[in-house]
Design a protein that fits this description.
Length: 268
């Protein structure tokens, strides 16, 4: 017999709740597809998955549970990683309030008191620097895996076929030969002339979203989402790090603060 503590029971309750919510969304959407009430059902990813559920070829059919699992992946890869990016960015701006003020001034110059809009997002240069520096120091994912399918040479190394390799981000992101002796410090100005100049023309040293043909497809979307959220916070609040905060990053699927981040907000 397995006995569960209070935390385990709460986790089971949350997982069951998430399962119910996703199931309802899927079944409601599935109904519109089956009843042909939705003309553009395949224009988004969920619509494509649900159409696969009704594929006449059994080899391509997806079960409801398969689609639920995909939706959970969307949540972790999309919502979870950006939440962590915003958490670490808020932490760093709560410590380095001079950069918080620089970002706020830029947001006010571009948007004033209006909600962020698409044309203005590209003009947030200091915000881009802050986000890139946050991703360098605290990338939500700290490594990625690759498999070598045929013998490959990488510099002086010869990688045999069928080799599984793990590429860690943090050692590259804080390598002093690449970033300088201040690699451990929060210095957004290192990205003032873009990523390529920041890494001395070695783009493979900055990997918050991966690199190459398999780079995360949500790269631009995630960055823009973070810019919008931070802009709206900066328009409304000044904030500092609480003296109760204890810095304890942990790796549990992603890089996260062990006990959260305590921030003191003051309305503007």
């Amino acid at each position: 017999m397995i006995f569960k503590d209070k935390e385990d029971l709460e986790t089971d309750k949350l997982l069951a709740g998430i399962q119910d919510i996703i199931t309802k969304i899927i079944r409601n959407r599935d109904y519109t597809i089956v009843s042909e009430d939705e003309d553009n059902s395949t224009t988004d990813y969920l619509g494509i998955l649900l159409n696969a559920r009704h594929d006449p070829n059994d080899n391509y059919k997806l079960a409801i549970q398969d689609i639920i699992d995909e939706c959970r992946t969307f949540y972790i890869a999309g919502h979870g990683t950006i939440s962590l990016l915003l958490t670490w960015a808020t932490l760093l701006l709560g410590i380095h309030t001079e950069w918080q003020e620089k970002a706020r001034k830029e947001v006010q110059q571009v948007f004033g008191n209006h909600n962020p809009y698409s044309e203005g997002i590209a003009r947030l240069k200091k915000m881009s620097m802050i986000i890139n520096e946050t991703l360098r120091l605290y990338p939500p994912a700290i490594s990625t895996g690759r498999k070598v399918y045929k013998e490959t040479s990488v510099g002086d190394l010869v990688l045999p076929a069928n080799l599984n390799i793990q590429i860690p981000f943090l050692p590259l992101h804080q390598d002093r030969e690449i970033w300088g002796e201040d690699a451990h410090l929060f210095k957004p100005e290192r990205f003032s002339e873009g990523v390529a100049n920041a890494v001395n023309s070695n783009p493979g040293a900055f990997l918050p979203f991966g690199y190459g043909p398999r780079i995360c497809v949500g790269n631009n979307f995630g960055i823009n989402e973070a810019k919008i959220t931070l802009s709206m916070i900066l328009q409304r609040y000044r904030f500092t790090l609480s003296p109760n905060y204890v810095h304890a990053p942990v790796h549990y699927i992603s890089l996260r603060p062990k006990s959260g981040v305590q921030i003191i907000f003051q309305a503007i």
